[in-house]
Amino acid sequence: MTYTATSTSTALEVPAAPTVGYWAGVWRRLRRDPVSLICAAILLALIFCAIFAPWLGFADPYTGSMIARLKPIGTPGHILGTDELGRDMLARLIYGGRLTLFLGITPVVAAFVIGTSLGLIAGYVGGWVNSMIMRVTDIFFAFPSVLLAIAISGALGAGVVNSLVSLTIVFIPPITRVAESVTASVRKLDYVDAARASGAGNFTIVRVQVLGNVLGPIFVYATSLTSVCMIISAGLSFLGLGVKPPEPEWGLMLNTLRTAIYINPWVAALPGMMIFITSLCLNLLSDGLRSAMNVRQ
Amino acid sequence: MSALVEIEDLTVRFSGERTVHALNGVSLSVEKGEVVALLGESGSGKSVTLKSLMQLLPGKRTKIGGKIAFDGRDVLKLKGRELANFRGPEVAMIFQDPSLALDPVYAIGTQIAETVMRHEGLSRPDANARALDMLKRVRIPSPERRLSNYPHEMSGGMRQRAMIALALACGPRLLLADEPTTALDATVQMQVLLLLRELQQEMGMSVIFVTHDIGVAVEIADRVAVMYAGTIVETGTIAEIIKDPRHPYTKGLLAANLHGAVKGARLDAIPGAPPTLEEPPTSCPFAPRCPVAMAACHAARPPLISKGPGRAVACILEAESVL
Amino acid sequence: MSANKTITTAPSLADIGGPRQPLITAKDLTCHFPVRAGILAPKKVVRAVDGIDFTIAKGETLGVVGESGCGKSTTARLLIGLVPITGGKIIYDGQELNADLSLRDLRRGVQMVFQDSFASLNPRMTIEETIAFGPKVNGVPQAEALAIARDLLDRIGLDPARFAGRYPHELSGGQRQRVNIGRALAMRPRLLILDEAVSALDKSVEAQVLNLLEDLRRDFDLTYMFISHDLNVVRFISDRLMVMYLGEVVEVGPAEALYHKQAHPYTAALFSAMPSMDPDARTQVPPLAGDPPNPIDPPSGCRFHTRCPLAKSVCSSLKPRAITLNEGHQVACHLHDPASGYEEVAA
């Protein structure tokens, strides 16, 4: 039995563009989006400074000077002025970035791992498992996230670890919900049915066919949560439930400088500016990622 | 007879991540009271032609060239108020998916009444009477009751009829139909086609009917323009196209319809796929797939060769047979 | 290029009953879905497939036609175990599913190609990986699975050197559907279910894929169940035709015979709803009024009686039984059942 491919059964079709992998395509689209690129650059610079702060030759963020208190922006030796205890603002903002970014990112990463797992299970298994997981999630949704964080932190007591825990708990429900809805929609697609029809087990299907297609959207959503998380953690510090003085942290700095707002408003506003810029960049970047990851265009 | 629509050398180019030359010099005229079918496969530019007539293409990414005249007026220059008065009373459109035209949060009767109130300034009771009349005309059973139905409460065929009623409420002179029967079941498709045919004759309007299904074109159209790669490759009356197709692409399409194909026989399939149109065609766009292509076909775009009134073929083989 | 370069995936289920034994026998096959409009709304049942019997002989192509909601896609999904069976039996080459044969084994013998060529391919996998997935989960080593995939790519008309590493969005609709066919064939099935597999394709591409299906049927000794709404295509490819309406089979018969003479009024309506292809003899009267009813609350008696031009009182009360007209031609209509009490026949 021989089989010759005749011209009619051969798909001699358009020589399409050279193969581009999925992530290469995402990167190509992202590269044409100046807003996302600028945001990514700012965030990378912030993270770089935060990590390498001790080696970048900044002033000591803990040493103050009673004579050099609340100096305005542009003071020689203190480019961004000083705070109410005469500590260099630039150094404190940079060092503050370490804690703030850590507190903003870690809970989201933890919630991403836990929420994605829960959402995958709920969305893929469906039925009563879904109902159970999602109804519990709904209970958490009844509380505004800020209040929930304050309540949990208040119950656990002040401190960095406790605010990490409370923030993680706050962000598990929204991530679970997004993961569940994305998984449920992917699960309905024919390629999952085709995989089932080829005899693959549920674990294999989730790992090979589902995971890769749901992680992207969940990741983008989690990116946008990072800014919320930073703001709430700043809020916790502001209320005295998070980081304790004299640690530099943007929310805490905002709190302690609050009294100086009439004396030197620009310096007092700086930590707020940092929170604002960082969360704005995170939000814009997640928007950019979302559109870059849209395959069908 | 004078032409209601006169499209001259229409070109449409979409820019964006990829440039697509969707239309590459389309000329078409539609007489008053005539039904013209635009027949072609996906990407042939048939829907784009309709959308440019309604100015429905995304303005920012679209570059349109050429001219579209509707009863002597330049459609591409209409703006704001003029455009709003053009869409509806002059030209209406129906779609494959009725949810594009029907608003899910308003009852069918309300939607039709609001439309005629806005365009014709009728009073509410008169407009409601018109809505009822329209539902009767599209043969929706128990129309009084249906007036207060929401789109999701209707079956697919009923929704399609409701959309037709909405489109025809202001008595348009031209109806643009974008595959309105494609998603319907076979028996329902035929009901809707017959309804459109009746309404067209009753109201005397012109229709441009976009379809990929040659059988549907046979049922509805007076004249057919076969489109390929953003160009019109052949026009003629439906009988001429069916019984005497001249362009190799039209011949291929007819064979691919499988009407009367013998079981087990090898199909004379057109090989390959249509061009992606990232560049405007500089030669005959069908040449790479054409069984009778010659060197000249790859060298330059074939002219549209007129074969009598309303009949033209864009193939150089036709030119030779004239000489 | 020789077909003897055998594809060494998990061996296909060997033939058991010989050519006379049907490859698939469905007996009283039923699938009901519970639906609920809201939490407090009463539970209702969609009778998607309601007690159907049919057989598919080895090597034949069974065409299945019917309008939306007739249960043709559900029937396909039942045969491959993608929806749970509510009642009845599926017998594969003499072995009953869940008694002599596990679902996993059945799926080695039965594969399916879906309508939506985009949704049925994982956008993150190259087409080579997609085709190799099935053999891999059935224990074929990675390298061998990829070799199978490349060989199949060649068979379905996609040059492996150019296409193996491509992603679905880099292919045209016709090419994607070829990949879906290849993915199904990688399991070495004996029955391939094509659920509207060419319906979404352009006509010229559809013809190419139909030619390919014919080649593959011969080369791989396949049996097809071909579901479509396009009667021209079904007639071209099918040996026998099964017509479904609201979860029931109304008529089964040889395709060519049915094309010329239909016994059931619904089949007749379906055929007369085909465009005439003759501008001088356009269809003048719509074949049927209204849309197909909802399968949640199907009409009593003969389910078609609400739209049937020939319905009499008996049709709304008594469910018609299947009557054999000729060898292999069965119809479920009182019109053809002398014992039904349908007056015209009785008279």
Major beta-sheet overview of chain B: 8 strands, mixed
**How many domains comprise the coordinates of chain B?**
2
CATH names the topology of chain C as Rossmann fold
**What is the CA-based Rg of chain C, rounded?**
21 Å
Largest interface: B-C, 46 and 48 residues
Mean pLDDT of chain C: 87
Annotated CATH architecture of chain C: 3-Layer(aba) Sandwich
Describe this structure in words.
The complex is a heterotrimer of chains A (297), B (323) and C (347). Chain A has 297 residues and is an all-alpha fold. Chain A has a single domain, classed as MetI-like fold. Chain A is built from 10 helices and no strands. Chain A is elongated, with a radius of gyration of 25 Å. The N terminus of chain A is likely disordered. Chain B is an alpha/beta fold and 323 residues long. Chain B folds into 2 domains: 232 residues, P-loop containing nucleotide triphosphate hydrolases (Rossmann fold, 3-Layer(aba) Sandwich), CATH 3.40.50.300; 74 residues, no CATH class. In chain B, 34% of the residues lie in helices and 22% in strands. In chain B, the strands form 2 sheets. Chain B has an 8-stranded mixed β-sheet, sandwiched between helices. In chain B, α3 runs parallel beside α6. Chain C has a single domain, classed as Rossmann fold (3-Layer(aba) Sandwich), CATH 3.40.50. Chains in contact: A-B, A-C, B-C.
Describe the secondary-structure layout.
The complex is a heterotrimer of chains A (297), B (323) and C (347).
Chain A: H1 22-31, H2 34-52, H3 89-125, H4 127-141, H5 145-156, H6 160-187, H7 190-197, H8 202-238, H9 250-257, H10 265-292
Helix pairs in contact in A: 1-10, 2-3, 2-10, 3-4, 3-6, 3-8, 4-6, 5-6, 6-8, 7-8, 8-9, 8-10, 9-10
Chain B: E1 3-14, E2 20-31, E3 35-39, H1 46-53, E4 62-70, E5 73-74, H2 80-86, E6 91-94, H3 108-120, H4 124-137, H5 143-146, H6 156-168, E7 174-178, H7 186-203, E8 206-211, H8 214-220, E9 223-228, E10 231-237, H9 238-243, H10 248-256, H11 295-299, E11 305-306, E12 312-313, H12 316-322
Parallel strand pairs in B: 3-8, 3-9, 6-7, 7-8
Antiparallel strand pairs in B: 1-2, 1-4, 4-5, 9-10, 10-12, 11-12
Chain C: E1 24-35, E2 44-56, E3 61-65, H1 72-79, E4 87-92, E5 95-96, H2 103-109, E6 110-113, H3 127-137, H4 142-155, H5 160-163, H6 173-185, E7 191-195, H7 203-220, E8 223-227, H8 231-237, E9 240-245, E10 248-254, H9 255-260, H10 265-272, H11 313-317, E11 323-326, E12 329-331, H12 343-346
Parallel strand pairs in C: 3-8, 3-9, 6-7, 7-8
Antiparallel strand pairs in C: 1-2, 1-4, 4-5, 9-10, 10-12, 11-12
Helix pairs in contact in C: 3-4, 3-6, 4-6
